């Protein structure tokens, strides 16, 4: 091979690698709201097609889905979110979740709101992710799919889709 051919070959390889990476889907990098540290959630906890799509793209496919919104409202009540945020998420002890302005700006995105609900904040919002509510019981808490449904309900009350 001539040198010219060699560099042409190398350039093609490098370009190929770059474009493949640029367009590859996820997984997204989830971080906690407290410090921005990586959130370690076992990939097999993303166990529905919708949760898998979220992990790959950061989009919440349940936003605008009536059945998921209804279920999300139930979970919001079951996990006492209503106690602090009010029955319509309008705000009580905790802030309103309607937006478009959020205490944590990233909560305007579904990835950001997922991270806040999963791992809590330093300002009075406890963690709700699976096993985080009660570290001695890895089954106590919300699955990623549950959190996405809660977010879909919250978005139905607010002014932003987060997607
Ligand atoms: C014990 C009271 C309490 C409960 C229960 C609670 N929260 Fe919160 N939540 C708060 C407080 C207080 C804040 C403000 C935290 C801060 O400023 O760091 C907050 C913040 C949030 C935020 C961030 C809002 C923003 O403006 O960025 C979201 C989202 C949220 N809560 C969702 C939920 C969901 C969903 C549930 C139920 C699964 C829940 N919370 C349960 C007290 C609560």
UniProtKB/TrEMBL annotation:
Residues that bind heme c: 81, 84-85
Annotated signal peptide: 1-24
Gene Ontology cellular component terms for the protein in this record: periplasmic space
PROSITE patterns recorded: CYTC
Domain Cytochrome c, first and last residues per copy: 67-158
Alphabetized Pfam families for the sequence: Cytochrom_C (PF00034)
Keyword field contains Iron-sulfur: no
SUPFAM superfamilies: Cytochrome c
Record bears the keyword Transcription regulation: no
Domain of life: Bacteria
PTM note: Binds 1 heme c group covalently per subunit.
UniProt protein name: Cytochrome c domain-containing protein
